[in-house]
User: Which sequence fits this backbone?
């Protein structure tokens, strides 16, 4: 099953691809040149949402969470989004921006490992 975005989501994704933040750019530069040959998409529209990164064969998105994700109604919105994605058989990985900036290589290794493992599981 292909994960597609709404018309509005696709428009937002296109805009966001041009406005990536430094914490999004750091892992993207490493993920797009993956030694394992994994092809991640950046700012991928999924239903009414936009995923920071998405590896379709494993149905695994990576979300880069800045400080705003801890305030206001963002925790509830993130929980609703994760629930919707889980219902689509998608396993979300979330990383705080401070962790990405401090340990980019470790985060990229974790993402790559999780993507390879889940792809193998889904192919079985």
Assistant:
């Amino acid at each position: 099953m292909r994960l597609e975005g709404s018309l509005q989501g696709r428009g937002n994704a296109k805009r966001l691809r041009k406005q990536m933040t430094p914490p999004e750019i750091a892992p993207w530069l490493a993920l797009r040149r993956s030694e394992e040959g994994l092809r991640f998409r950046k700012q991928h529209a999924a239903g009414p949402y936009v995923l920071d990164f998405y590896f379709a064969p494993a149905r695994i998105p990576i979300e880069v969470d800045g400080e705003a994700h801890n305030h206001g109604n963002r925790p509830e919105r993130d929980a609703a989004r994760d629930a919707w994605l889980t219902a689509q058989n998608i396993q979300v990985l979330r990383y705080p921006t401070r962790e990405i900036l401090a340990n980019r290589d470790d985060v990229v290794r974790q993402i790559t490992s999780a993507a390879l493992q889940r792809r193998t599981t889904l192919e079985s």
Notes: The CA atoms of residues 1 and 88 lie 9 Å apart.
